[in-house]
Amino acid sequence: MTLPRPNSTRAAVLIPFAIVTLIWGSTWIVIRDQLAGANVPPSWSVSYRFLVAGLTLAAVAAWRGELGGAHRRDPGFWRFAALVGLLQFVMNFNFVYRAEQHITSGLVAVTFALLLVPNALFGRVFLGQRLGPQLLIGSGIAMLGVVLLFVREARGDPNGARETVAGIALTLVAILSASVSNVMQATERARRYPMLPMLAAAMLLGASMDAGWAWLTTGPPVFDPRPSYVAGVLYLGIAASALAFTLYFRLIRVIGPAKAAYNSVIVPVIAMLLSTLYEGYRWTTLAAAGAALAGIGLVVALSARRPAR
Length: 309
What we know:
mainly alpha; 12 helices
């Protein structure tokens, strides 16, 4: 059976893909400000972020009349949402925030680009999605670009080898937990549940787990009243979580987890461009070559056919 050309070259996919990539490319600077400029433990910052995100999506779902469906009485819905919350909004982000305490945000962002690999492998193993030659070639080109970016960031990391290893290890655990959650969104079970109520429940359950972990490990809630911290929580909660994850999970359902993960390849490039504008980041030959290869790999891979089952 001949598969149709994918929608991944059309505005219905390219526009949300671009929005997600641009938003997540800017979050590393905001997260770093929360870690460096605020006296708030990372777990509490994660809790506030997903509390805001969950309440935002719940309000939108209520406005759309989607909160009162049969899913509310389905135990499977709550188990699914709790697992997504644990993997995506607890483990993933707590490990990422802690990784940035050991290595630079740029190195964390570049390492996270490896999300493409487990997403593609898990999609093949658990969803039966074949990886066509065009997707493999694009992935290979993009991964070469990631390697060049990684070498550039690792060279510029001011921390010692021990700190670098710890930071990368924490990032890899975050990648694996995020990847499992990503693949869950492409299953038939996920399609049975309305997106907004499911995400709202996952984020609110995740926020409660984050808060429980934060209280257990760091003590009672701590909040920073600085306008920049409050603005950061709102931006990360509303734009980078409520909006971006809704678009991203829908992309996974349309183009598969492997292609959707290409945003993680471009995110560090966006972060570097923003750092150039606001922090005086200086490009090297390695960085420029890595960014160019990541972009070429993206174009090649996204022009491939939809993943077949």
